[in-house]
Amino acid sequence: MTRNYKADIAVIGAGVFGAWTAYQLRRAGADVLLVDAYGPANSRASSGGESRILRLGYGPDAIYTRMAQRSFVLWQQLFEQIARPQLFQPTGVLWLAREHDPYCEATLKTFQQNDVKFAKIERAELNIRYPQLEFGPVAWGMLESDSGVLLARQAVQALVAAAQSMGVTYVQAAIRPPKNGTTRLQFVETTGSTRIVADKFVFACGPWLPKLFPQLLSELIHVTRQEVFFLGVPAGDNRFLPDQLPAWIDFNDLVYGIPNLDNRGVKIAIDEHGPPFDPDTGERIVLQESVTRLRAYLARRVPALADAPVIESRVCQYENTSNGDFLIDRHPAFENAWIVGGGSGHGFKHGPAIGEHVASLVSGSAQVEPRFALATKDKVQKRQVY
Fold first, then answer.
1. Whole-angstrom Cα distance, residue 309 to residue 66?
2. Could you say which DSSP state residue 109 is in?
3. Alpha carbons 131 and 116: distance in angstroms, whole number
4. What is the per-residue pLDDT for 50?
5. CA-CA distances (angstroms) from residue 6 to 181, 191, 203?
6. CA distances from 25 to 136, 279, 337, 369 (A)
7. pLDDT tens-digit profile of 328-339?
8. Dist CA 259 CA 248 (whole Å)
9. Contact between residue 32 and residue 173 where contact means Cβ atoms under 8 Å apart
10. Is the overall model pTM greater than 0.90, yes or no?
11. Cβ count near 113 (within 10 Å)
12. What is the Cα–Cα distance from 59 to 166, expressed in whole angstroms?
């Protein structure tokens, strides 16, 4: 006999957005069912990598700076509650700025207006503090001293475990696209023909959103292939440990780096959007041309690693809206369903604040943020949020 599941609220997707939404809804007293096709922070998921930078800098976009500040508090509260403070690594985050740098200058102004703790560092001081890096055209830097790195996969899995300990039910199952025909969604069906019945639904499915809602989202959520590399440091070389080198953001080159956490090597990723990618069937093997491009960057910025071996690599995906703003809105066909996504490349850190916001939307105590509304999304990619 096929088992059906019932709950007040079903959250589809156990990545960082869905897991935090389920956690916050349960804290508010709801009976919550959390569903994922492959498991929390699995290897196909946008939340499935080893590490994510927790930064507060967003140029002039103070809305994201404030969300990151709130999320930082909630991450720390969670890690204290579950006695795993090491899931946040306080490396600091260093922004590398050019002489005339509108984005970094706007970030500095936003920091000043929102009480962010930071230090502006002139070029001569950068050379002294961080000899591991060759700064080239970099004229100055900003150090977010309290920021750092979240151990992403472990953090999401710990969060789901915490949610389960509070009473959230977790089910591993793949969902079929919901059927239209009524203004309320009565249930969703799994690929195993199990029904999940709920009063309300939250779809936080990342790169699977266009597959679940092809007519609505296939041209509004852009899923792209992204590559990440870990470089082996020289034997006995401590210069790349997190107490010696912060995470850094080379915004003008669209590259970010993370120091040698857990002795896995220095993580480097080129942050520009790649070609379209299928999260289910895409092969996750890096391209040789990407390795060549990585080597060229290392020769310029981190010469000590220019010839270092790639000891680990990863192909993941981004799922972004046209401009990089989140998509958090009610489904236009279902009055009791919400869509949460568009976060790849910068969304992981915001999971806690997004969970709070979605819980408030579902309860009716909040309104949709205009920047996150479905109506503001476009079909043509023109990235503005980084």
1. 39
2. H
3. 26
4. 94
5. 21, 17, 16
6. 48, 27, 14, 19
7. 999 999 999 999
8. 9
9. no
10. yes
11. 10
12. 38
